[in-house]
Amino acid sequence: MKQERKFLRQCALCKAYKEKKDLIRITKDFKTGIIKINDNSEVKGRSIYLCNNETCLENALKKKKIEASLKTKLTENIKNELYTVLKK
Ligand SMILES: [Zn+2]
Question: Less crowded by CB within 10 Å, the N or C end of the chain?
């Protein structure tokens, strides 16, 4: 029987360690530079995790944490998409 291991990831903002399901994963595809949110396919690129709550998301956007980590510009579409993920 396969044992399920829990991988904890760290929120880039508050530094809390959480399970993947409690985090938003933002990945920048290293080939295309396209930003993917909670993409389950194995996108190769840099990823950043944030708590799935408004406080962390809002502060991360304010402090440009995501942009700094992924070395990219976030479009308004991506920002809106992040808030959509949050509401689920
Ligand atoms: Zn957090």
Answer: N
CA of 23 to the centre of ligand 1 (A): 8
- Indicate if the pLDDT at residue 2 is higher than 80: no
Q: Which residues contact 4 (CB under 8 A, 6 or more apart)?
A: none
Q: What is the pTM of this model?
A: 0.86
Centre of ligand 1 from the C-alpha of residue 30, in Å: 24
Compute, in angstroms, the gap from residue 1 CA to the centroid of ligand 1: 34
- Distance (Å) from CA 86 to ligand 1 centroid: 13
